[in-house]
Amino acid sequence: MLFKYKVVDDKGQSKEGSIDAVNKDSAISSLQRRGFIVVSIKEEGENKSIFKMAIFEKVKLKDVVILSRQIATLFDAQVSALKAFTMLSANSENKLLGKKLSQVADDLQAGSSISQALARHPDVFSEFYVNMVHAGEESGKLNQTFSYLADYLDRQYALTSKTKNALIYPAFIVVVFIAVMVLMFVMVIPKIALIISESGQAVPFFTKIIMWMSSFFVNYGVFLLLFVVILGIYLWRLSVTEKGKLYLDRMKITVPIFGKLFKKLYLSRISDNLDTMLSSGISILRAIEITGTVVGNKIYGGIMTQAGEDVKGGSSFSDALAKHEEIPSIMVQMTKVGEETGSMASILKTLAAFYKREMDDSVDTIIGLIEPAMIIILALGVGVLLTSVLIPIYNIAGSI
Fold this sequence. Notes:
Elements: E1 2-8, E2 14-20, H1 24-33, E3 37-43, H2 46-56, H3 61-76, H4 81-91, H5 95-109, H6 114-119, H7 127-139, H8 142-199, H9 205-239, H10 242-254, H11 258-279, H12 284-294, H13 298-312, H14 317-322, H15 329-341, H16 344-399
Helix pairs in contact: 3-4, 3-8, 4-5, 7-8, 8-9, 8-11, 8-16, 9-10, 9-16, 10-11, 11-12, 11-16, 12-13, 15-16
């Protein structure tokens, strides 16, 4: 492989060039034997390949779950951290993850701890993940820590997937329904409207509305499409601002029907995060702070940040949570019991299981109601459309 390098010679002068070597370590050793101090060294085309992988490859949560289980298994088998990450990088099916693991292995060889090496890749390993690994390093229970992480991430993956799947079906039906209606208004209704107009028959009120809507789509459809595109771009730009994220995250938990579902998702995630970290020996204050950054919702993230500040000021965690109406009373009461009995992790584990079960029940209920509701809405829409068009046609046929 060809490597591009920047070095400093014994006279303090900078030099650049390329060197052919089996791997990066061999290239570095070869340059050092020549008396050079290596400033930087990169494989030829490395930046380009990373750019390509960033576009076409993505490290999914499921990949990190599998990786965590593999690391736990290798540590159980007394395989060193360096060898474990080197093996996993070589055998990873995801090229981007393999590249990240190779960089982690290089950092370990250079003397970094596992948590420090992982922290350099926040797009793959979250702050929660890194802090869990750091706690495992301090306690000497890294194999258990990675098992905890795999179990936790698996639960989060299942929760998120179930929520997304519950929303995909109605969204798909709505999009298809809108597309079919637009095609009807643009391609079918104008021809029928022409026949009705030329007949000279009296046009019913609902038929006039349908004909007007069809005329609007035909004459001003381009402007409507342009408006939708501009609105989409505006909403996208709004969603990347702090104010926009806050607004959208609040809308998620207040929208009818689905708001309760999202609330249960975030409450389950908060409880599960805190339970996993407390069980690994992370302090309650640090666990609260980290949970605020990884909960995935600005509203609940702000609540956890404020709760952390209150706990720093001497307040109990349950009292800090009680100040926020987004936190249900049962969670406050259960947390208070955990503080009084000294079994906070156990109580939080029970809460996480409770909210997961509640969310599963809500998803099942929503899915059960969506199908008949969609069928009724579609039937009404198609029925009104067909009735408005067919009645004048029958009148025309009857008058012939």
